[in-house]
Amino acid sequence: MTMSQLEIQNIDQTVLLWLDDLQKDTISAMRHHLQVGTKHDERDLVTNVDKANEQKINALIRSFDVNAKIVSEEGFGDKPTAMNGHVWFVDPIDGTMNFVKEHTDFAIMIALYVDNQPVLGWILDVVDNVVYHGGPKIGVFANQLRIQQPGDDSLAEGVVLLSGARLLYGMFGYDQIAKAALGYRVIGAAGPSFIRVITGQAVGYSSKMMPWDFAAGQVLAKTLGLIVSDIDGQALDMLSSNIVLVATKRAHRDIVELHKS
After folding, report:
1. Do the annotations mark residue 213 as ligand-binding?
2. Which residues make Cβ contacts (< 8 Å) with residue 144, sequence separation at least 6?
């Protein structure tokens, strides 16, 4: 089903209102005692805020878009096997380690896909209270300021962002990619890393991600003419984990070639 620009703008504005409330709640919760647990290992943290935010967002989506399916991190969503219809992706706290230990470089992310096509994405930089949002039909904005397409710098001309764990062990050619770049950084969260690429601060970013980690960033990046793929240059599977690469066209070509070599 094709949605009009007006329908898409109305959805965008509705989610921005949700995120305004979530930003205030998350900052307030961060200033009080966090209940911190672990999931798969001691570095895979989860807090009461992750769970509370996801429950709030999912309830709002289910009320607003009653037939939609939800793919979300903390287990309160659905388990769709296909991308038909409306599919929402929710990351209630992206970068939980940063949230708990650094109190910066974390985000809240939401995305809407319709029949497997990217429609809208939202990445909320919680600390700075800036929402990066939009999609193919309306463009991309930082709050109300339109973002222009970033330049097409090569890998050698810019900073690349990489997964720290995989860089440490030289996986996926990350060590060679870091050496070939003008500089490299490890942020430790997908949302803040996508923000740096779409705003032109970095020429590329790669990490292993789950769908809720990359769904919103993919919408915004593709709208701005950036390339989003797996590390081999193939389309992403929206319902499973991927080694994701987002980059300028020239940096994307450079990185894929280095990975394959």
Report:
1. yes
2. none
Pick the CATH number of 5-146 from 3.20.20.60, 3.30.540.10, 3.40.190.10, 3.30.950.10: 3.30.540.10
Q: Exposed, middle or buried: residue 123 (CB in 10 Å: 0-12, 13-18, 19+)?
A: buried
pLDDT at site 2: 79
91 is in an annotated binding site: yes
Establish whether 73 is an annotated binding residue. yes
Average pLDDT estimate for 68-78:
92
Which CA distances in Å does 223 have to 39, 118, 238? 34, 9, 17
Single-letter amino acid code for the residue at 130: V
- 65 marked among binding-site residues: no
Report the relative pairing of strands 242-247 and 86-94 from DSSP bridges.
Answer: unpaired
* Fold held by 155-260: D-Maltodextrin-Binding Protein; domain 2 (3.40.190)
- Measure the CA–CA gap between 212 and 102, rounded to whole angstroms: 22
Counting residues of the chain whose pLDDT is more than 70, the rounded percentage is 100
Tokens of 135: 């999609």
Residue 103 gets which letter from DSSP? S
In the block, residue with structure tokens 């070939």: 180
Residues 6+ apart with CB under 8 A from 78: 69, 70, 71
What is the predicted pLDDT for the residue at 42?
80
- pLDDT tens sequence across 173-226: 999 999 999 999 999 999 999 999 999 999 999 999 999 999 999 999 999 999
Closest CA to 120 of 203, 187, 64, 46: 64
